[in-house]
């Protein structure tokens, strides 16, 4: 097996890149990475959605490469983002599953990350939107400086939702501080117990405007129950309906403020994660209720970014990447009508499963790459993964990676840009069970022990877990309908061995 991660091949490549491929510093493209939350392959018009229209995204897709075999590293947010930022599989590190809102930072300050790499290459870097990678290194005092965080792992500026919209605290953190915090009304957060006298969704359902279906019955903010408890910080709390407006405005002003150097913007939207509270401008834009309307809102955000790049004359030399952290889910804990109004919409497109699953829809997500100055429009079915952005953008910007930097990230630049059809050698995905795909065959590892749950009762998602090995021939059976493990023991053995090899690195 080739070892594209090895130090030697990296050095060779980098020296080549420096002499022949890497553009001169003043020609380096700006990079805007737009990262949606829980938006599935089939939720976007250019990927087949009929009942949601996404004209802004489709326009970018038509002018760039629309990848049809593009993946997040995991089936949920935190591990996908961890891998995106570090080029390292999250399962290599304990404590990288879905984090509570008071978790500490899970990326080591000073380590090589996608933003620190680009900062070294001369980029101005910024993150706007959902973080969910933890903050601080001990119990967080939300009223003081909060660090380490994004600024300590390579971002020059940060305007973030600390965890998720459904987790406390429901405030933005700007650089090291909670935005708009009134010192007279300190913000307190607990994931253990409620603060005396504070209402909860569980005890005060009369205060709710959206009912929970599972979880989400702790502190109430804006008539919506959340995960976790908070008190105070009233002036700092966001308005759910304005989150997309707030973060889009920040993203736009980040771009406007960057004139002299290339910039890297990581714009991580909250749409279409729960609670789905699209601004009234988008309510009713789709027949699918809040979930579809939140995707319409996402498309608007994308359009605002695109218009800004056009207006400033930056579009031609800006690499825009649009993707999502994991596949779709309808009922993720609130009774917002998503399952009832879904009709024949297929949020995962042709793929089986959804968010958290081991089946394909968990990680096969929209993946669009546009860079007018270099990329010729097209559609690519080559296997690509978000985990490869670090090594690929290192190559693009002529940066060397040491052997233990971004160890799982391969340089797939040519494929990402549509200049090659070369698949990633293999793909490891972290869903409700681990899977590995190579040459169109996908192996899902069995879960040991008692009978596995086939459908998650809460979200009604097919988990893809089984206590026997599963093998699917994705090329011939894209819907993962027929377990071919018994027929192809050799293929199973090969993939088991490869998975072991990747794990032991
Ligand atoms: C789950 C939440 C779900 C969502 C998810 C994280 C419950 C019952 N479910 O635990 O609502 O918040 O975590 O989603 O609490 S992610 O996209 O950030 O990974
Ligand atoms: Ca997510």
Mean pLDDT: 95
Taking the sheet with the most strands, its summary is: 10 strands, mixed
**Percent in helix:** 10-25%
SSE class: alpha/beta
Hetero groups:
2-acetamido-2-deoxy-6-O-sulfo-beta-D-galactopyranose, calcium ion
Question: Largest sheet, order of strands side by side?
Answer: 7-6-5-4-12-1-13-14-2-15
Terminal CA distance = 14 Å
Question: What general outline do the C-alpha atoms trace?
Answer: globular
Low-confidence stretches: 1-9, 11-21
Share of β-strand residues: 15-25%
Radius of gyration: 22 Å
**Total helical elements:** 10
Region (Disordered): 331-355
GO molecular function: hydrolase activity
Biased composition (Basic and acidic residues): 338-347
Organism: Luteolibacter yonseiensis
Molecular structure report:
This protein has 505 residues and is α/β, with parallel strands linked by helices. Helix 5 (243-256) packs parallel to helix 6 (290-311). The protein starts with 6 loop residues before the first helix and ends with a helix. It has helices at residues 7-21, 55-62, 77-86, 114-120, 243-256, 290-311, 338-341, 389-396, 413-416, 489-504, and strands spanning 30-36, 65-67, 70-71, 124-130, 157-161, 173-174, 177-178, 188-190, 220-221, 224-225, 229-231, 263-268, 318-324, 367-370, 378-380, 384-385, 427-430, 434-438, 441-444, 455-456, 461-462, 470-473. The strands form 6 sheets. A 10-stranded mixed sheet has the order 7-6-5-4-12-1-13-14-2-15, sandwiched between helices. A 4-stranded antiparallel sheet has the order 17-18-19-22, with helices on one face. Strand 18 (434-438) and strand 19 form a beta hairpin. The structure holds 2-acetamido-2-deoxy-6-O-sulfo-beta-D-galactopyranose and calcium ion. 2-acetamido-2-deoxy-6-O-sulfo-beta-D-galactopyranose (NG6) binds next to loops.
């Amino acid at each position: 097996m080739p070892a594209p991660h090895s130090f030697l091949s990296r050095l060779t490549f980098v020296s080549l890149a420096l002499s022949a491929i890497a553009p001169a510093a003043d020609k380096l493209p700006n990079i805007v990475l737009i990262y949606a939350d829980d938006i599935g392959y089939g939720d976007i018009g250019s990927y087949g959605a009929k009942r949601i229209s996404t004209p802004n995204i489709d326009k970018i897709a038509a002018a760039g490469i629309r990848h049809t075999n593009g993946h997040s590293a995991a089936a949920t947010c935190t591990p996908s983002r961890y891998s995106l930022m570090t080029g390292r599989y999250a399962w290599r590190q304990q404590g990288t599953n879905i984090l509570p809102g008071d978790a500490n930072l899970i990326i080591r300050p000073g380590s090589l990350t996608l933003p620190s790499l680009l900062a070294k290459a001369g980029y101005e870097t910024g993150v706007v939107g959902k973080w969910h990678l933890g903050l601080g290194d001990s119990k967080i005092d939300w009223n003081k400086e909060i660090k380490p965080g994004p600024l300590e792992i390579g971002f020059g500026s940060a305007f973030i939702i600390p965890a998720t919209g459904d987790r406390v605290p429901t405030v933005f953190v700007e650089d090291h501080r909670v935005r708009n915090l009134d010192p007279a009304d300190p913000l307190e957060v607990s994931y253990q117990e409620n603060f005396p006298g504070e209402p909860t969704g569980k005890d005060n359902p009369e205060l709710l405007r959206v009912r929970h279906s599972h979880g989400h019955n702790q502190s109430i903010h804006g008539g919506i129950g959340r995960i976790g408890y908070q008190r105070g910080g009233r002036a700092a709390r966001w308005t759910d309906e304005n989150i997309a407006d707030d973060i889009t405005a920040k993203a736009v002003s980040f771009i406007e403020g960057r004139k002299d150097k290339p910039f890297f913007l990581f714009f991580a939207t909250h749409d279409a994660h729960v609670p789905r509270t699209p601004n009234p401008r988008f309510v009713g834009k789709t027949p699918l209720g809040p979930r579809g309307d939140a995707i319409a809102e996402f498309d608007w955000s994308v359009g605002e970014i695109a218009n800004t790049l056009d207006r400033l004359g930056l579009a031609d030399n800006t690499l825009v990447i649009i993707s999502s952290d994991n596949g779709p889910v309808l009922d993720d804990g609130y009774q917002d009508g998503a399952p009832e109004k879904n009709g024949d919409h297929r949020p995962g497109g042709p793929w089986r499963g959804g968010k958290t699953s081991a089946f394909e829809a968990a990680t096969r997500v929209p993946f669009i790459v546009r860079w007018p100055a270099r990329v010729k429009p097209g559609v690519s079915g080559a296997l690509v993964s978000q985990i490869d952005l670090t090594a690929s953008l290192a190559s693009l910007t002529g940066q060397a990676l040491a052997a233990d930097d971004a160890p799982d990230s391969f340089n797939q630049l040519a494929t990402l840009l549509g200049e090659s059809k070369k698949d990633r050698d293999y793909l490891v995905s972290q869903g409700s069970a681990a899977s590995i795909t190579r040459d169109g065959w996908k192996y899902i590892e069995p879960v040991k022990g008692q009978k596995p749950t086939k459908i998650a009762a809460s979200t009604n998602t097919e988990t893809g877990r089984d206590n026997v090995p599963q093998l699917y021939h994705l090329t011939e059976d894209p819907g993962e309908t027929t377990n071919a493990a018994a027929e192809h023991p050799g293929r199973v053995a090969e993939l088991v061995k490869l998975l072991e090899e990747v794990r032991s690195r």
